[in-house]
Amino acid sequence: MMKAGMARVDISPQKGEELGGYPHYARNNTGVHDPLYGACMYLSDKGQEVALVTLDLLFFSKKHVAKVRERVEASCGIAGSHVMISCSHTHSGPWAAGRLDIESLEAGKEQPQEYVEDLVEKIVGIISQAKQQAFEAEFAAGTAICGAESGVGGNRRMPGGPHDPLVSVLAVRDLSGKVRGMYVNYTLHPTFIHEWSTVCTADYPGYLRLQLQEMEEDVVVCFAQGASGNQSSRYYRKGESYPEAERVGRTLGKAAHTVLEGAKWRREMELAVAGAELALELRTFGTEEELVEKVARDKKNYEELYGKYGNSKNRDEYYLWQNANLKLLGSEDQLGYVRMQKNGTKIELLDDEQPAEIQIIRLGDACVVGVPGEIFVEYALYVKAMAGFGTVVFNELSNGCLPGYLYTPESLVEGGYETDTSMLGEEFGGHLVEKVLETIKKVK
Question: What is the rounded distance in angstroms from the CA atom of residue 341 to the CA atom of residue 58?
Fold first, then answer.
């Protein structure tokens, strides 16, 4: 019979740690608004076992994942290849991977080694705890709909553009019918709390978790981020605030709970795991001289728009200068990359993440896809359509990172912050999707 186990741990940093998420704005942690958590769902059946871990972090490096897997194998016998570690992508948590912003790279800033080492041990601890406390269980998987039509979020590059409104849920309950764990995936940047904040927060996933805990007593909630590279609340939110984060988080939590109301629970299921690797493909940005001219043009455009609309309270006018600001930051990053490569300076987010890992976990009629990096939603939508499973959970930022956004060729033509800051080649996304679908076939 199937067994399941749930465990979680507080992973909030000490005061003073630098917060990630808005790398061009230096922020040091001054406290905790709401705790950051690491959580684990452990599942086993017919001699197979898997551990799905989620972290309230922006990024978690591939090299740290390797340490966790090695220690998990030694401490509790779960195969490292059967452990998936995914991030919520909160922009108000500590760094746990390299970075691409030029200011930090040129200043030689490093990850907080003491925090990361403690974090690795905590992750190993919750995986071991979840296995040790495993109980005979029933499992269910399904989806609900909650997107732009609910005022939650959508495409941040093109209002009304492609987006994924599915709230994907994996759930376990004991044989008495008590729901013990929920694994929720949703596609939306956690950026209701912006660069003005200097405290730790899980952003809207924290309120999603709170809503579910109020509806199912003692439930442990994992939250993983979908393909949100071009998805956010930018054109859909009522403001950048905790009340707005709470509105969205609770709305999503209620939607996730509806999956339980119509769930088909099962006591046995087939578990299967497959993996693959893909070498990163990088792009060429042009010469240093060309990029110097580009930065100058983008800076002039930004300064002109900010001069006109910088103090405007009109949201449309705000986006005019803010998008120009993001484009300038992207141009500056490109210039910085070229200079750093010219000087032979190490870029951790590139060097530590080679090659990209693809991980597929089959849970009966459900399939969990883990890929690194921030992925444009078009790729996930295609995978979900072609995978051939009733429920497909697409986790970006799993088992590592990428050196920039995984954009679409179409978006490269349009330009913008996401494409300008990415070191990836325009064909890499298509190759990744091909490899994902090829790997999915191995678990069918």
Answer: 25
Residue 217 and residue 203 in contact, taking contact as beta carbons nearer than 8 Å: no
Tell me the helices (H) and strands (E) count for the chain, helix number first.
Answer: 12, 14
Residues 7-37: tens digit of each pLDDT: 999 999 999 999 998 877 889 999 999 999 9
Nearest CA-CA partner of 291 in 282, 299, 281, 302: 299
Model confidence at 101: pLDDT above 80 = no
Question: What value does the CA radius of gyration of the chain take, rounded to a whole number of Å?
Answer: 21
DSSP 34-61: S--EEEEEEEEETTEEEEEEEESSS---
pTM > 0.90: yes
Outline where 182-285 has alpha helix (H): 204-215, 242-261
* Cα gap 101→18, rounded to integer Å: 14
Helix (H, G, I), strand (E, B) or coil at 272: strand
State yes or no: pLDDT of 280 exceeds 90. yes
pLDDT of residue 347: 85
For residue 339, with 0-12 CB atoms within 10 Å meaning exposed, 13-18 middle and 19 or more buried, which class applies?
middle
Q: What is the pLDDT of residue 37?
A: 98
Lookup: tokens for 18 = 């630098």
Predicted pLDDT at 365: 96
Q: Which two tokens stand for residue 344?
A: 């032979």
